[in-house]
Write a structure and sequence with these properties.
This protein has a four-stranded mixed sheet with strand order 1-2-3-4, sandwiched between helices. It has a two-stranded antiparallel ribbon with strand order 5-6. It contains six helices and six strands. It is globular and about 45 Å long. Helix content is 34%, strand content 14%.
Length: 166
């Protein structure tokens, strides 16, 4: 093991252990190559946090596609994974997904309509909910389709053509 303080080294792990506080509510991990190349691997973050009895929340806002990321982070041990509905899935901008441990998802739900608490300012409409459901279903269908051509130019908002859904 590297003891120089580099990512994943015992010195880096000891430093993270030393920074824990009794009132720490959660550890937030930012997913994506821009952040992950400078961070401990998620599996180590999960181990450190769970060792202290603290949940890990992965901010995976821009990590769709691929659709497999919907279960990737929780499969690595994260307690919650958060995704934007308006980025990769191309759903409503004011929507998103909270996936993971049932008790934590329920705690988030406690701040949603009809409970007028902290989440009141972050409420969403029925149209946004249905738009997000349609976007996730479409993204899931695209991930399993077999295109006959690559479709429009790279970076286009259109899916490939062939046996893929419209």
């Amino acid at each position: 093991m590297d003891h120089s303080g580099r990512r994943g080294s015992s010195k880096a792990l000891d430093g993270h252990r030393a920074r824990r506080r009794p009132r720490t509510a959660a550890v937030v991990y930012f997913a994506g190559t821009r952040f992950e190349r400078y961070a401990l691997p998620l599996e180590q973050v999960v181990d450190l946090a769970h060792e202290a009895g603290v949940p890990v929340i992965v901010d995976a806002a821009a990590q769709l596609p691929p659709v497999e990321n919907l279960w990737h982070y929780t499969g690595l041990g994260a307690d919650l994974a958060l995704f934007s509905g308006g980025k990769g899935p191309r759903g409503p901008q004011a929507s998103g997904l909270v996936l993971g441990r049932r008790d934590l998802v329920d705690a988030c739900r406690a701040h949603a309509c009809p409970n007028h608490a902290l989440g009141r300012t972050m409420k969403t409409s029925k149209e946004n909910v249905l738009g997000l459901v349609a976007a996730v279903e479409r993204a899931a269908a695209w991930s399993t389709c077999t295109p006959t051509s690559t479709g429009p130019a790279a970076g286009s908002a259109s899916p490939p053509t062939g046996s893929c859904p419209a």
